[in-house]
Amino acid sequence: MGYSKKYLPLFLGVAVGVGVFLGSKLDFSSNPSTKLFASNAKKEKLNRLIDYIDYEYVDEINTDSIVDVTVNRILENLDPHSVYIPPEELEGITESMQGDFIGIGVTYYPFRDTISVINTIKGGPSEQSGIKAGDRILMADNDTLYGESLLRERLADKLKGEINSQVQLKVFRKGTGVFDVLVKRGRVPLKSVDAAYMLSDNMGYIKVNRFAETTYKEFKTELDHLKDKNVESLVVDLRDNGGGFIAPALRMADEFLEDDVLIMFTKNKKGAIENNYATQKGDFEKGKIYVLINENSASASEIFAGAIQDNDRGVIVGRRSYGKGLVQREMALGDGSAVRLTISRYYTPTGRSIQKPYGNGNKEYFNEYLTRYKNGEMISADSIKVADSLKFKTPGGKVVYGGGGIIPDIFVSKDTTRVGETLNYLLRSGRMGRYVFEELDKKRIFYNELSEEQFSEEVEIDDEFAEGFMLFSRRIGVEIELQNYQDQLKKYLKATMAQQLFGTNAFEKIINEDDAMIKKVLSLSEND
User: Fold this and answer.
1) Around Cβ 46, how many Cβ atoms within 10 Å?
2) CATH says 193-328+335-413 is which class?
3) Is 0.85 surpassed by the pTM of this model?
4) CA dist 167 to 157, 173, 182, 187, 430, Å?
5) How do residues 191-222 score in pLDDT, each as one tens digit?
6) CATH 2.30.42.10 region(s) of the chain?
7) pLDDT digits (tens, 9 = 90+) for 89-113
8) Of 63, 71, 422, 433, which is most buried, counting CB atoms within 10 Å of its CB?
9) Alpha-carbon gap, residue 96 to 214, rounded angstroms
């Protein structure tokens, strides 16, 4: 389809954009007299140059921007994942990786110049206060939240606040009218576990979208729930998971590995090695494990997959992962900005580094994703290039390779029609969600009264609904070619509707119907 090529760079950027979130925080600022910050001629040269520009240059210059450019140029010459984070971005990134924020617990977007609630976070402040999907938030305390000048940033400022602080909302609901509701702000989770449910009578499924501070706790809760259902085998879905903190990935792997088994190790430039071993805490050390990965699975995802593969613990299914084997640590720069600096490399239990080469510059490094497409690697496992010099063997005798990502044990090719890429783009852009919201809003009372089971069994997406989305897309300037893929489009529309009504678990259940990798796992389990 011609459409997919147009938007291909967006998809290629997914793993790159999230791949830098790996490592723990380190703050050296408490002791400025340490050798790390000792004065030297190189630092003095830069400081003096900035002072000359500040005080002597003929024009007024924003030296802050010069410093930012300088920092970025320095980091670009190190490796692709050592990055500068300006102050205006740091708070959002930190919040995302902490796994929660302080707010009222709704997802929303401006619809016809009004704040429209898409859904409430389960167990969050708004749900507890009685706010429902479809409600319009008109005012927060004495601030008006509607009109043409509505800004998303301003909205966030009004709805967020200190924990346990209260905000008086004026809300409009169809069939009820305008009413006031008092909401006490609380911790709102940014979930990293999208879904957890039973694929069959004895096989469970858990999807993890990133590795944040709360990921292991979320994962363990869902694993315990599945164990209560007598799960015997488990699918851990790490597709499109660009990584995050190391610690949650290690703790997750620990659940599946026997005591004292090596999970991974790191090595810094001085050759110092730090080993990470499994402990006695494993709660699923005997059941069968399948790990799903693809070309966007990176860093912490690869640590988990590598630990399972190198210890002959489970089966890796999918396509070669991204290939990020560098560990970053966040360091404050004193002005609200920070740098994530590569401090070591990590290695899988067999001793392989899965970091792909970056010696030819960042451009070629990030374009390596395109090279995989051109080489046919997304279609055939035989097209994956490996080096005999980077061959390793697991304790069970299985051959594995280093030098660029985790190569799966069982290969599943990418959809050559690229329909999935098109539909995923429409999801990420918000266009599909907006259309579905407007359609739900026409029968809001009916849909809000449905249970998830009733929705699954009774609601069908007909041709008129699907064609309506095509017309909607054209109306907002997006030309898509999905006339020959009505079934896939209907599935995504129903899944988006389920997400807005019931959350991400309901979405994944529908999206995973007829999923190629999951079908492969189910067939493998039948033959075991």
Assistant:
1) 12
2) alpha beta
3) yes
4) 12, 18, 6, 14, 28
5) 999 999 999 999 999 999 999 999 999 999 99
6) 100-189
7) 888 888 778 877 888 999 888 777 7
8) 422
9) 10
